[in-house]
Design goal:
Blueprint lengths: L11 E4 L6 E4 L6 E3 L4 E3 L21 E4 L5 E4 L1 H20 L1 H41 L15 H12 L1 H7 L2 H5 L14 H16 L1 H20 L11 H4 L6 H35 L11 H21 L1 H26 L2 H18 L31 H27 L5 H45 L13 E2 L26 E2 L8 H9 L15 H31 L8 H37 L1 H23 L9
Helix pairs in contact: 1-2, 1-9, 1-17, 2-7, 2-13, 2-14, 2-17, 2-18, 3-11, 3-13, 3-14, 3-16, 6-12, 6-14, 7-13, 7-14, 7-18, 9-10, 9-13, 9-16, 9-17, 10-11, 10-16, 10-17, 11-16, 12-14, 13-16, 13-17, 15-16, 16-17
Length: 658
C-alpha cells in the first residue's frame, strides 16, 4: 500500500498507471490511495475519472483454464455457476412438472402484481423524468475519454440497439396489440366512448407500453454501466454501477451476486423470447404451407428452428460485435423498414399519415403524465370489494396482464439490453445516448404502430362493416365471409348495389386488398399474417392469377423475424459472457459458444418437455425475480448522479480530462 498523502503534509498528486494522467487534489481534501488497484477514493468512495492506457486489475474471483492451442478461458466461477445453477434449476422444474410449475409461478406472478402494481407503475415515470433531466443537466458528459470517437455510425448504432431491444416484439405485437386493447380496459369500457375513440385509445395504450416506458430501464443501466466502465475504467458489469454505494465491497460476494443474478435474468429472458418466437415463426410457416397447416404436433419443428437460429447466432457472436452482430442488425432493421414501406404504399396511405399525426399528438398529451401513473385501482377491485355496479369497469386482470406485465418484462430484459447498449455506446455523450436510445426508438415505435396497428384496426373495422352489410341487406352475417377463416371477409372488388336502393351500399376505394379479418383472440400471432395476405390483388397479372403479395410479405416477415431472433440471441450471449468474465470485452470464442448453446438448450428443453406452458412458467419466473432489479434501477439514479457530479468536478462536463 502507498503512504497516505495526508501524512506528508503536501498536496497529493494521485497518479494513474498512465504516466501522463494525474489528478491534483487540495491538501485538505486529499483522498486515500489504493495503489494496488490504481484508484483514488474520496469520502463517498467514488473512483476518480482517469484515462489509463490499459484496464486496471480488480480483486474479483477469476478462473483461468489454459488451452492447448495457446488460448485460455477466463471467467468468474462464482458468477458462472450461480447463474447456471439457478437457471437450470428453475428450468428443470418447469420441464419436469410444467403444469405444476406454471400454477406455482403464475401464483407468484399474480401476487407480485397484486402487491407491487404501484411500485412497477410509479418506478417507470421516475426513470423517464430522471433521464430527461439528466440529458439537460449533464448531457455533455461522455461515456469515454477525451477525443475518443464512437465505435459505430449512427445508423449501425440505432440498428443494433433496436434489434437487441424491441425488434422481435414489433412483429409480435405490431398488428395484434392494438386489436387486443379494443376491449377489457378502462379506456374502452367506460361506457361513453365511440368506436373511433376506443381505437385511438387502443393505439395510445400500445404506444405507452412500447415508447418511453419500454426504453427507460434499458437506458438507465446503459448510462450507469457506460459511465462506470468508460469514464471511470471499472469493469463493464452491472456490479460496477453500485461502486458509489458499496465501494470496494463490490468486488466481493455482493458484486458476484449482482452479476450472477444478471446472468439468470439475461438467459431466462432470451430463452423465453426465443421459444415463444419460434411458435410465432411456425405459425407463419404453416400459413405459407411450408409446414403442414393441419399438423398439431410441432415439437420437431420448434426444435429445428431453435437450433437453426442458435447456429446462426453462434456464428454471429463468434465473428464479434463489429462484424456479425452489426451486419445482422443492420440487415434486420433494413428489411423491417422495407416491410413497413411496402404495407404503407399498398394501404390507404393518407389515412395512415393522418393517423400518424393524430397518434403523435395523442401520445404527447397522455403518455407523459396520465397513463404512466394509471394503476386502475378501482377497476382491479373484485366483486365484494367495492367493484363498480354500472358494469363499466375494466377487467380485474387487465392492468396486471398488460401494463404491469410490460413494466416488469422491460426490467427483466434491462440487464441484457442495457449492458449491450452500454457496450455499443462507448465514447458517446449522455445526450446522444438519450436521443439515440430514448427519443429515436420512441419516434420509430409511433410510426410502426400507427402504420401496422392502424392497418390492423382499419381492416378489422372493414370486416365488421361487411358483416353488418350481410346482416342488413342479405339477412346473413356470413354473406361476405371468406372460405379461409370465419374471422375473415372477402372485400367486393366493385361497388355493390341492391334492389330498392339507388346508391351503392358498398364503395370499394381500395381495390386489391382482400380479405380483411376481425381479430381472433385465440390465435393472435395470425393477425400479422392476415395483414400480409390481405394484399392479394385478385384478378391481376397476365392471366388474372397473380396471387398477390401475401406469400412474399409473409416469407420476408419470417426471414426478418429470424434475423431479429439471431441478433437477440447473439447479443445475449455476448452480454452473458461479459458478465461471467468480470467485464472483459475480449473472450475466447469457446465461451461465447457455450452461452449461445446454453440458451438454445434451455429453450429446447422447455419446449420439448412442457411446450408453451413451460415457457410461460419461466417467463413468469423471470418477471417475478426481476422485481428486485426494479428497485436497483431506481437506486441507479443516485449512482449516476454521483458519477456525473464527480466528472463535472474534474472538468469533464464538456470534455474529458487530459
Amino acid at each position: 500500500m502507498a503512504e497516505d498523502p495526508q501524512s506528508q503534509g503536501v498536496p497529493a498528486v494521485v497518479k494513474d498507471p498512465a504516466p501522463e494522467v494525474a489528478v491534483l487534489v487540495e491538501e485538505e481534501e486529499a483522498p486515500k490511495v489504493d495503489a494496488e488497484v490504481g484508484k483514488t477514493l474520496d469520502d463517498n468512495s467514488v473512483v476518480k475519472p482517469c484515462a489509463p492506457k490499459e484496464k486496471r486489475d480488480f480483486p474479483m474471483r477469476e478462473t483461468v483454464i489454459s488451452l492447448g492451442s495457446g488460448g485460455e478461458l477466463r471467467f468468474n466461477w462464482f458468477v458462472s455457476l450461480f447463474g447456471l445453477a439457478f437457471l437450470w434449476g428453475i428450468s428443470i422444474y418447469c420441464m419436469v412438472e410444467p403444469d405444476n410449475a406454471k400454477v406455482t409461478l403464475d401464483k407468484w406472478f399474480a401476487e407480485t402484481i397484486q402487491y407491487f402494481t404501484w411500485f412497477y407503475i410509479v418506478g417507470n415515470p421516475i426513470m423517464t423524468f430522471f433521464i430527461f433531466w439528466l440529458a439537460y443537466r449533464y448531457g455533455n458528459i461522455k461515456l469515454g475519454h477525451k477525443d475518443a470517437e464512437p465505435e459505430f455510425s449512427d445508423m449501425s448504432y440505432f440498428a443494433m440497439l433496436f434489434s437487441a431491444g424491441v425488434g422481435v416484439g414489433l412483429f409480435f405485437y405490431g398488428v395484434s396489440e392494438p386489436l387486443w386493447h379494443q376491449n377489457s380496459n378502462y379506456f374502452s369500457e367506460a361506457g361513453y366512448r365511440s368506436q373511433d375513440e376506443i381505437d385511438q385509445w387502443a393505439l395510445e395504450i400500445t404506444l405507452y407500453h412500447w415508447g418511453f416506458a419500454g426504453w427507460s430501464p434499458y437506458i438507465m443501466i446503459a448510462i450507469c454501466c457506460g459511465l462506470a466502465s468508460y469514464a471511470f475504467d471499472l469493469p463493464l458489469t452491472v456490479r460496477s454501477c453500485f461502486y458509489p454505494i458499496f465501494g470496494e465491497y463490490i468486488w466481493g460476494w455482493i458484486g458476484d451476486a449482482i452479476d450472477g443474478w444478471s446472468v439468470v435474468m439475461t438467459v431466462a429472458g432470451v430463452c423465453t423470447s426465443l421459444g415463444l418466437g419460434v411458435i410465432q415463426i411456425t405459425t407463419g410457416l404453416q400459413r405459407l404451407e411450408w409446414v403442414d397447416p393441419t399438423k398439431t404436433e410441432l415439437t420437431g419443428v420448434y426444435v429445428a428452428i431453435i437450433w437453426i437460429v442458435t447456429a446462426f447466432a453462434t456464428i454471429s457472436v463468434v465473428t464479434g460485435l463489429k462484424m456479425g452482430i452489426k451486419f445482422l442488425s443492420v440487415l434486420g432493421f433494413s428489411l423491417g423498414c422495407l416491410i413497413l414501406f411496402l404495407c404503407f404504399v399498398m394501404e390507404k396511405s393518407y389515412y395512415l399519415m393522418n393517423l400518424l399525426v393524430q397518434t403523435t399528438g395523442f401520445y404527447m398529451q397522455w403518455s407523459i403524465f396520465q397513463v404512466p401513473f394509471w394503476t386502475d385501482s378501482f377497476g382491479s377491485l373484485n366483486p365484494g370489494e367495492g367493484r363498480s355496479v354500472d358494469g363499466n369497469s375494466s377487467e380485474t386482470w387487465w392492468i396486471g396482464a398488460w401494463t404491469v406485465f410490460y413494466m416488469a418484462w422491460w426490467v427483466a430484459w434491462a440487464c441484457f439490453v442495457g449492458l449491450f447498449i452500454a457496450r455499443i455506446s462507448k465514447n458517446r455523450t449522455i445526450r446522444s445516448v438519450v436521443f439515440g436510445v430514448f427519443l429515436a426508438p420512441t419516434a420509430y415505435a409511433i410510426i410502426w404502430f400507427s402504420f401496422m396497428g392502424g392497418i390492423g384496426l382499419r381492416q378489422a373495422r372493414q370486416a365488421l362493416e361487411l358483416e353488418k352489410l350481410g346482416t342488413d341487406f342479405f339477412q346473413d352475417a356470413a354473406h361476405y365471409q371468406s372460405d379461409s377463416s370465419e374471422f375473415c371477409y372477402d372485400v367486393p372488388q366493385e361497388d355493390v348495389y341492391v334492389d330498392g336502393v339507388e346508391d351503392p351500399i358498398f364503395v370499394n376505394t381500395l381495390p386489391g386488398i382482400t380479405p380483411v379479418c376481425k381479430f381472433d383472440t385465440t390465435s393472435s400471432p395470425a393477425a400479422w399474417f392476415n395483414v400480409m395476405y390481405s394484399y392479394s390483388y385478385p384478378g391481376t397479372g397476365p392471366d388474372g392469377n397473380f396471387g398477390g403479395f401475401g406469400q412474399f410479405l409473409s416469407g420476408l416477415s419470417i426471414f426478418t423475424l429470424a434475423i431479429y431472433f439471431i441478433t437477440s440471441s447473439d447479443s445475449g450471449s455476448l452480454v452473458v459472457d461479459t458478465l461471467a468474465s468480470n467485464g472483459a470485452e475480449e473472450h475466447h470464442w469457446l465461451q461465447r459458444v457455450f452461452w449461445a448453446f446454453t440458451e438454445g438448450g434451455v429453450a429446447t428443453g422447455l419446449l420439448v418437455a412442457g411446450g408453451s406452458d413451460a415457457l410461460g412458467a419461466l417467463q413468469a419466473a423471470s418477471i417475478v425475480f426481476g422485481l428486485p432489479f426494479n428497485f436497483l434501477i431506481i437506486i441507479m439514479c443516485w449512482c449516476i448522479l454521483v458519477m456525473c457530479r464527480t466528472l463535472e468536478e474534474h472538468g469533464q462536463a464538456n470534455e474529458n480530462m487530459d
